[in-house]
Amino acid sequence: MAHRRTFSARFPDMRNVSLDDPPLTPIPNITELPMLSSRKPRAYWIRTTFLALFVLVAVSVYVLLVSPPALRPIAFLDVDHSRADEAARPSRWTPEALRLAALKHRRPLTSTTLANNARPQISLNQTQELAAVSSFIASLPQNMIPSTVDPSQPIDPQLVLDFDTRGPRAEEELQAVVHDVWARNPVMLYSKVRFPPARSNLPETSEALIGLQVHSPISREIKQVLADMYLRPAPTVVDVDQRPDENVLVPLLYRLTSTNELPILLIGGRTVGSPREIRYLAAKGELQRLITEAGGVIDGARKKKAKKL
Fold first, then answer.
1. pLDDT per residue as tens digits for the range 151-182
2. Which residues contact 136 (CB under 8 A, 6 or more apart)?
3. Among 121, 151, 157, 227, which residue's CB has the most CB atoms within a 10 Å radius?
4. What gap in Å lies between CA 272 and CA 73, rounded to an integer?
5. Contacts of residue 117, Cβ cutoff 8 Å, sequence gap at least 6
């Protein structure tokens, strides 16, 4: 038999409760709570706020006006000109201090490092030097020969090679660089974009002589000969007169290739000859043969036509 629920005093009938009846649960007196009864007066908080602001202003004045030397940046100059008695005070950033700090934190030398430092640096012959310079230039357009380099003397291998030139495997790595640069760049052209015309062919006006340059027809002709072959990989063209290191690179190339004019065409790391000889070899088909032997593929970059179905 199911239990029938009825309303009792514990559970009154909420349907008969009106808004004017007293609440079922008495409202507690919050004034009797100890936490609220002990609240500080308003004057106390006003005095505390003014005291905190006064302390903040005092600290700011002290930091900004009383002790400004503690906040100034570290001077990289060796002399402080603000005080006469400290005119010769040395700085912590002097070259001698930096050298001593580097020596303090330097790693201990191992037997391998000592052996490499004692081993002489590899020397480059003319063919290896040309390969190293060409690899250095062809790897990144940002690579520049320093202006301090004497083009009439052999270049320092450390400037153009990315390995330890005193290591035990330096010779093997050098041979790998020589092979890799001509395998990646079987055809390399050092050209020039502009050249100043002869003054005899110009009018006598000074305005025509200032900044007047024309495109080099020889370099443009050699570039067109190579472009008509559709080589794969594409020929590496270096416009020497457009580079910041032109004054060093031009005499350096003249010494390494035994030539005295641009453009200079290298096929497999070997100089082809003068522009007149390049035209002759291209007309006889010998230039194409040399490129094929160096690893280049003629018509390899030509787009294939779609087959008709």
1. 999 999 988 998 888 888 889 999 999 999 99
2. 143, 145, 159, 160, 161
3. 157
4. 61
5. 166
